[in-house]
Structures are given as C-alpha cells and as structure tokens.
Specification:
By secondary structure, the protein is α+β, with helices and mostly antiparallel strands. The chain is about 25% helix and about 30% strand. Strand 6 and strand 7 form a beta hairpin. The longest helix is centred in the N-terminal third of the chain and has 31 residues.
Amino acid sequence: MAGRPSPKKDTSSNYRKNAQRAEVAAETQRLKDYLAPTVAGENLFLEDIEIRIAGAHRTIHVIVDLPETESGGVSLDRIADVSRVLSDAMDQDPQDDGRPYSLEVSSPGVSRPLTEPRHWRRNTGRMVSVVPVRGDAVTGRLLEVDGSGITLVPELAVKKGMKPKQGEKLHLAFDQIAKGRVEIEFAHLEDEPAGEDADGMNSTAEEA
C-alpha cells in the first residue's frame, strides 16, 4: 500500500522567519553596542536587550543591572532615570529606520539564572542552588567567586523542624555548572531596594 505523500514545506514562510530572526539578532547586537556606553554613564551594566516585533511595531526591552561593586538591586528611581536617558539616546540614534517602537527598561530580578561569572559575583553571600554537569544538585551559601569557579558551603538535608546543617566547603568550576539560581530568603529581602525588579516590573517609554 502506497504511503501518503508528505506535505510540502512552506519554504517561503521559513525563509521569512529565518530572515526576520537574523534581522532581529543583528539589530539586537547593534543596539547593545550603541546603548552600552549610555547605560554605563548611569553607573549601571547593560545586561541584555530583547526585541519583539508585531507587524511594523517593535518592543525594545533593555535589561540593566548594578555593577559588580554594588550590592542589592536596581531601584525604581534608577530605572526611571536610565529610562529617560535611553529614550533620548534612541531618539538620537543615527541608524534608526524610523519604525515605531516601545522602550521597556527593567532589572533582571532575583529569578534570573546565574549564567555568567559576574552573576555569581553579584550574589556572593546568598543562598544558591546549583545543578552540576555531573552529580546531584546542591544548595548552599555562596562564599567566594574566583576566576575558575565558585566556592559554597552546602546545606545538608535534615528532618523537618531541625536546624539546617552545613557541609564542607565545595568548589565548582564554571564548566562543571549546568544551572544555577538564587534561593530567595526572607532574611535577605531587606537587601533588595523597594521596587527592585524581582517580579519583572519595568518602566516603559512609549515612542510614536
């Protein structure tokens, strides 16, 4: 019995999607290069830029963080200040093509995955969960971050109601870490300035 012919792929649609992805990637990198000095001028770090396209409209989401020398999170006042400066920079962008856009500015929040050495350094002293490339996940207090990896004190599993116990110091090289994230502690909520983007709050500037 002859099988049914496989449906033809819409190559024109795939081509358009691939072309749009390539365009967005190129524009994202261009804006990172263009806006990074502006963010640095506000004593902040340009963490990332995300561009979403809906028809002729673009949403440009700029994610900023504190430099490694500062602890805590980015306050809403600083988000508002850098939003105004970034909006002015976007208006003066010599390579902008004139398409309408919305500008969103936010900080990463404590739910951000720890994927770079600077992320780990910014969270020294906090409780973190680490999934190694090999072996079981471990949760512990992040003590130190050096050029090769992280050092933490693991918290050992105990029966419910018992005081947590600590294990021996553990060093994990960056290339041994598959995933990492911060564990939220009520005792450390005071470290987060009011309005920090823990829940993805952002400041939005609408552009015509």
